[in-house]
Specification:
2 domains, single chain, mainly alpha, about 120 residues
């Protein structure tokens, strides 16, 4: 067995490959839907920390499920990305975070111009 193709059932022809692609697309759509639904109940900081772990989980899943090689170069690149994301999100000592801008009230839209349209 070589690579992930036989493990995923991709060696059985185009029909099996298309079916697998549809399953992957549905699972991905479901995952993103659940993620976006759950994010409305979390604070911004918790959502940011959750997103910090995604590259790490992707690299580990690639290594475990697809037998991808984790080279020192890959690890260094991942650490640089992870460090940059942490640096962007974490409040540094002596540096206050910018306050959120106040939301201005939005005036109601007048529908007077829409009534003349067919």
């Amino acid at each position: 067995m070589r690579g992930a193709g036989p493990a995923l059932g991709l060696g059985r022809g185009l029909r099996a490959c298309r079916a697998h692609g549809r399953r992957v697309a549905r699972a991905t759509a479901y995952g993103y839907g659940v993620q976006h639904y759950a994010q409305q109940y979390l604070s911004e900081e918790k959502v940011a920390l959750t997103h910090l772990g995604e590259p790490l989980f992707a690299a580990l899943a690639g290594a475990v499920l697809l037998h991808e090689a984790l080279t020192p170069r890959t690890g260094l690149g991942g650490l640089l990305i992870f460090g940059a994301m942490v640096l962007a999100e974490v409040k540094l000592r002596g540096q206050a975070r910018r306050p959120k801008p106040a939301k201005a009230p939005v005036p109601p839209i007048q529908n007077s111009t829409l009534t003349s349209l067919p």
